[in-house]
Design brief:
This is Small ribosomal subunit protein uS15c. With 87 residues, the protein is mainly α. The chain has helices at 2-13, 19-39, 44-67, 69-79. Helix 2 (19-39) packs antiparallel against helix 3 and helix 3 runs antiparallel to helix 4. The relative contact order is 0.12.
Length: 87
């Protein structure tokens, strides 16, 4: 599975508190909540949690893109997520 391979790469290089690992864990939570909400469309509490996690991931990605653009590009490529529009 992609998760185990990616965790092993990150844990060898950096700690679990790194921006990359946090974005990775938020992405997994987002994917899990999205599949949950496809089944339970009226679960408004989970929708709120999803929006909060999306905001946290967006702020972390904005931080990473400002600090190190190469690591940002590599991360969004590995996680296959879209590049965010920076205001």
């Amino acid at each position: 599975m992609i998760k185990n391979a990616f965790i092993s790469v990150i844990s060898k290089e950096e700690s679990r508190g790194s921006v990359e690992f946090q974005v990775f864990s938020f992405t997994n939570k987002i994917r899990r909540l999205t599949s949950h909400l496809e089944l339970h469309k009226k679960d408004y509490l989970s929708q709120r949690g999803l929006r909060k996690i999306l905001g946290k991931r967006q702020r972390l990605l904005a931080y990473l893109s400002k600090k190190n653009r190469a690591r940002y590009k590599e991360l969004i490529g590995q996680l296959s997520i879209r590049e965010t529009k920076i205001r």
